[in-house]
Amino acid sequence: MNPTDGDSPTHDSENASKSGGIKETIITIVYAGLIALGIRSFAYEPFSIPSGSMIPTLVVGDYLFVSKLSYGYSRYSLPLSLPLIPDRILFSEPERGDVVVFRLPTDTEKDYIKRFVGLPGDRIQVKQGILHINGVAVKREKVDDYLIDNGFGSVRRVPRYIETLPGGRKHFINEEQGDTGPSDNTPVYTVPEGHYFAMGDNRDNSSDSRYLDRVGYIPRQNLIGRADVKFFSVDGDGWKFWQWPSTARFDRFFDGIE
């Protein structure tokens, strides 16, 4: 039987309603994606820690929010590092002691995270494990060892210190191999204008500005943002959510980064 004239408007209305619903859903998804992209590009971006170079401050499996508001914006703030921003805009100078995410100068496809200990014009040197800034030794105080559980019932003890930078900011550092290694006795580095000197808190296991051919001085343009807070931490693969009850480090959730 052919539909009557009275049936057609009903079917047309249903089809229009379905079409309008799909269109609204697509628009909502696009708007949500643009908002998320804007937040990620200009406010806060999540990062994860893949290596132990910042132990004890940050450990493998920590997830961070990095503030892009802190230092302004460069091309590396944008998706795909689009060259739309010359140098930096809305720039604010990093403070000594900030934990910073930046693009590696020797390979700008890679993100690194370290602590900035040297500002433009500073003279940096490490002598027998002690950081010197502008010829003055930075105070280093021994505290309880950092304990590393190897997962097989034994614990390894690593010497841990509190380092107090000029200005009074304090943070923990590890000195796993003592104070006699190549990275514990360095030449004097003079930080160029517009650049910064970065070191890992795990001093004997960090590829940082002490190695000029690998990392070197960090150009201002390469700054991505300041690491502000750990929002999640897991001892294992973060995507395996069914393991979180036994692998999540709840004491590190929403913990500020000193």
Summarize the structure.
The chain is α+β, with helices and mostly antiparallel strands. It is built from 2 helices and 15 strands. It has 2 domains: 1-42; 43-256, Umud Fragment, subunit A.
Q: Can you walk through the features of this model?
A:
The protein has 2 domains: 1-42; 43-256, Umud Fragment, subunit A (Ribbon). The model is unreliable at 1-7 (pLDDT under 50). The chain contains 2 helices and 15 strands. The longest helix has 35 residues, at 8-42. It is an alpha+beta fold. It has helices spanning 8-42, 244-247, and strands at residues 44-48, 62-67, 99-104, 107-118, 123-127, 130-133, 136-137, 139-149, 155-164, 170-174, 189-190, 195-199, 218-219, 223-233, 255-256.
